[in-house]
Amino acid sequence: MIDFKSIDGVLVSNDILKTKFTCNLDICKGACCTMESEFGAPLLKTEISEIDRNFDIIKEYLPAKSVQEIKKNGFWEEKDSELMTRSIDNKDCVFVYYEGDIAKCAIEKAYNDGKIDFIKPISCHLFPIRVTDFGGDVLKYEKYEDCNPALEKGKETQLSILKFCEKPIKRAYNNEFFNKLENLNGK
Fold this sequence. Notes:
- By secondary structure, the chain is an alpha+beta fold.
- The protein has helices at 14-18, 25-28, 45-58, 64-73, 106-112, 122-126, 148-157, 161-164, 166-172, 175-185, and strands spanning 4-7, 10-13, 76-79, 82-85, 87-88, 92-93, 96-99, 102-105, 129-133, 137-141.
């Protein structure tokens, strides 16, 4: 059974507070961006317009096959009433580019290079946290086998998912919300 805490009407899984987690791209190779699935990363309507607004810059970082897919079908789709990024062959997100053998996000690269002001979809930024709606937001740790190296590295760094995801949690909610979660972490 999953145990939850309630903060400002948001249910938060205790796994987020207790599980040690630190991404290890050298081992996982960016698996969260290349999950085999017919569903892409969840998107908000506002994020679609942000990506549209910045697409001419983002596409500079994309491989030709991604640009072709986006020109043909767009970068997002709706499935089961959910908005999400498209994927190529039910695997790579259309925004994936590779540095060596590591999958990375072209949106985030453009942001880190100072060319756009939108970092990436919040669902990607929060990962391994997933937000679902059950009469209000529910934050859960999405266990994904390819992230097992992050659990091992988390034991070394001693960072909880909460601390690892501090910036995206503050982005999605606010500093006060994060601070309340952090205070719960010791209880």
